[in-house]
TrEMBL record, chain A:
Record protein name field: ATP synthase subunit b
Membrane protein topology class: Single-pass membrane protein
GN (gene name): atpF
GO cellular component: plasma membrane; proton-transporting ATP synthase complex
UniProt keywords, alphabetically: ATP synthesis, Cell membrane, CF(0), Coiled coil, Hydrogen ion transport, Ion transport, Membrane, Transmembrane, Transmembrane helix, Transport
Entry keyword GTP-binding: no
Coiled-coil stretches: 72-134
Location(s) in or outside the cell: Cell inner membrane; Cell membrane
HAMAP family according to UniProt: ATP_synth_b_bprime
NCBIfam families noted in UniProt: PRK09174.1
Positions of transmembrane segments: 46-65
Record Pfam families: ATP-synt_B
Function: Component of the F(0) channel, it forms part of the peripheral stalk, linking F(1) to F(0). The b'-subunit is a diverged and duplicated form of b found in plants and photosynthetic bacteria. F(1)F(0) ATP synthase produces ATP from ADP in the presence of a proton or sodium gradient. F-type ATPases consist of two structural domains, F(1) containing the extramembraneous catalytic core and F(0) containing the membrane proton channel, linked together by a central stalk and a peripheral stalk. During catalysis, ATP synthesis in the catalytic domain of F(1) is coupled via a rotary mechanism of the central stalk subunits to proton translocation.
Organism: Hoeflea halophila
From TrEMBL, chain B:
Role description: Key component of the proton channel; it plays a direct role in the translocation of protons across the membrane.
Gene behind this protein: atpB
Protein name: ATP synthase subunit a
Pfam families hit by this protein: ATP-synt_A
Subcellular location field: Cell membrane; Membrane
Transmembrane segments: 31-49, 84-108, 114-134, 143-167, 187-214
Membrane topology, record value: Multi-pass membrane protein
GO CC annotation: plasma membrane; proton-transporting ATP synthase complex
Amino acid sequence: MFVVTTAYAQSNPTEGTNSETGALEGGAPASGVFPPFDSSTFASQLLWLAITFGLFYLLMSRVIVPRIGGILEHRRDRIAQDLDEANRLKEEADNAIAAYEQELADARKKASAIAETAREKAKAAAEAERASTEAELGAKMAEAEKSIAAIKTKALADVDTIAEDAATDVVKHLLGGSVTKAEVAAAIRAASGK
Amino acid sequence: MANDPISQFQIKNIVPIEIGGLDLSFTNSSLFMVATVGVAAGFLFMTTANRGLVPSRLQSISEMSYEFVASMLRDGAGSQGMRFFPMVFSLFMFVLVANLLGMFPYFFTVTSHLIITFALAMLVIGTVVVYGFWKHGLHFLQLFVPSGVPGVLLPLVVMIEVISFLSRPISLSVRLFANMLAGHITLKVFAGFVVSLGSLGALGVGTAILPLVMTVALTGLEFLVAFLQAYVFAVLTCMYLNDALHPGH
């Protein structure tokens, strides 16, 4: 694979310009070896690779990797922190909503309780008024009945007197005589079956 | 040169350095490694400088790549695997940016060289082996002994497991290397057809539309491959690290 002849290892850089495709055919010696298999350049390539890649590795491991790692870490922390904050605020908002709902329910309950008592009170007042009015009316009625009864008694009492007077007069007119009031009264009492 | 699909992989010295007979020159490959590191680290550094709580668009890209690799690693190797996060993240970003930079015309593709992808793969496997033995001691070798296998089959199964473990760095590196290499060669070949046909007169220009359409389509595909191979490399890294963390199947 590494067909490299040291004789051509000292290939001068311009040699490649003379070759057309000769170098393609397995490193034909006419124009030097196929450049990737030219061992004379290996030492220089290895040295410079070691220098440049070593430097690159140092830069990466000392500067770049910690820096980008730090940026990403910082961002991750910040996002986590913001999410926590958002969660906290959401919880706060939820609590506020719950408190509001609770208060609203309380207020509703209180309002309905007030309405209930007001209704009860009004009902009781109306009931009481009705009762007192009824009682008053009953009293008035009883009084009226009493006075009617008195009037009736009085009237009935008068009927006898009137009947005696009338009967005395009738007897006087018809018989010309005179009868005593006591006779007439006895007669009336007998007539009315008393 | 325009039609040579290989010249784009040619390594050219920019600043020649030689120490003890070893050629350690700063090359175009080195330049694009530096560019890869500069672009990747610079982008990640600048876009996260504000540390915005609400990310800007560019900061989101950095954060997305971070979380992409993190979830990949957590799924592949569990939460204990997160200790390897800087390594997996560096590998993913390095390979991804190197692949994507390679998509610019005239830019060199660092990951199109086997030695680079092999070195990265060996880094992964080396980490797995070292961490595995350090954490679990000889119990790490349980990795090669699946539980519940009948005694007769055990030698065969252990052999298969060992071979599959040894082939991991090869498959890991060759997959990335071959994908980048083949993709860039194909692109260059089809783009080369456009140029050669275009020089053939009116009929040629008319026909050149076909490879042009192909080149456009392949460019889109190559962007997908550039991302996909970085992803595959990182996912397999996570799976191999999982073996180091939990060797008993």
